[in-house]
Structures are given as C-alpha cells and as structure tokens.
Amino acid sequence: MATMTRREFMRLAGWAATVTGFAAVAIPIVAYFYPKNLEEVPSEPVPVGKLEELGVGESRLIPYGRYPALIIHTEEGIRAYSAVCTHFACLVKWNAEDGMIECPCHEGYFDPLDGSVISGPPPRALDKFSTFVGEDGLLYVGEEQQAEGDQA
Ligand code: FES
C-alpha cells in the first residue's frame, strides 16, 4: 500500500480547499442566472387583483414567470407588458405624470397603448401580454384557458 507524505497530503488538502471555495462562489452565481423554478412565461394565467381596485391611470408590477409584468389601466383599457426594457433589461415603470412607460436606466420611453418605443435607446417595443377578467371577477395576465366543451 502506497503511503502519502505529509507534503503530498498538504498539497491535496490545499487543492480540495481551493475547489470547494471556487464551487461555493460559482454555484450560487450560476443558480442566480438559471433559476430552476421559474418559467420564462407562466403556462397558467396569473391573477393581478380585482379590476375595480386598479383605477384608470394606475399600474401594478407583478411577478410573471421569470420576470415581472407591468399592468396599466389606460383610458383605452388594460394593457400588460413585460417590465424588462428591450435595451439593457432594466425594469421599466409606469410614469403616470407623463402618461408613459419609463426606463430609468437610459431614459427610454414607451407608449402605454401598444408598448412601442417613443424615445430613447430601446431597439424595439416591450413584449405584450394578454389580459382577461375571469369569472371570479379577478383580472388575469396570460391566455384565458378554454374549459372543455367551450371550444368553438
Ligand atoms: S435599459 Fe432601458 S433604456 Fe437602457
């Protein structure tokens, strides 16, 4: 049976500590960018709340899959968009005073009616989501699920 010298043991222990330390730092970083429980977009509609609790001119930011969704009650109805800016992925917010969706990172502005770019560096419109009011009176973001037998 081969024996290990003290020097070999210390070298092996040093490598083991280095690998363990690297893994302790690298694994949480990788897990942060690849959360396993969050879908890109949920397969089921996500409730926002009661429609009457979201007045005209008000907005909500809700968790919607991997990223949040921005819901705005405009004069023309409810609109829902990905809250992730199409420039460098900052979170956009509703600017009720100016009546625009605003990205605070580089002063990008989006139209609340269709998500298109009004000004600033974003290269394209915000991703748009569907909304509907369920039979329970709640406002949902996502595609309304057809009950079996309801299909046209
Ligand atoms: S990240 Fe939104 S404008 Fe740059």
What does this structure look like?
It is built from 1 helix and 11 strands. It folds into 2 domains: 1-35; 46-145, Rieske [2Fe-2S] iron-sulphur domain (Rieske Iron-sulfur Protein, 3-layer Sandwich). The chain is α+β, with helices and mostly antiparallel strands and 152 residues long. The strands form 3 sheets. The protein has a 4-stranded antiparallel sheet with strand order 2-3-4-9, with no helix packed on it. The chain has a 4-stranded antiparallel sheet with strand order 5-6-7-8, with no helix packed on it. It has one helix at residues 6-33, and strands spanning 46-50, 59-64, 67-74, 77-82, 93-95, 100-103, 108-110, 117-119, 128-129, 131-133, 138-141. 18% of the residues lie in helices and 31% in strands. The structure holds FE2/S2 (inorganic) cluster. FE2/S2 (inorganic) cluster is lined by residues 85, 87-88, 90, 103, 105-106, 108, 120-122.
CATH topology tier name of the largest domain: Rieske Iron-sulfur Protein
Number of helices: 1
Q: In percent, how helical is the residue content? A: 10-25%
Q: Point out poorly predicted stretches.
A: none
Present as ligands are: FE2/S2 (inorganic) cluster
In sequence order, what are the helices and strands, one letter per element?
HEEEEEEEEEEE
Question: What is the CATH superfamily of the largest domain?
Answer: Rieske [2Fe-2S] iron-sulphur domain
What is the total domain count?
2
Instruction: Just give the CATH class of the largest domain.
Output: Mainly Beta
CATH architecture of the largest domain, please?
3-layer Sandwich
Tell me, what's the shape?
elongated
Overall residue-averaged pLDDT value: 89
Give the beta-strand count.
Answer: 11
State the end-to-end distance. Answer: 77 Å
Structural class: alpha+beta
Q: Which percent range describes the beta-strand content? A: 25-35%
Largest sheet: 4 strands, antiparallel
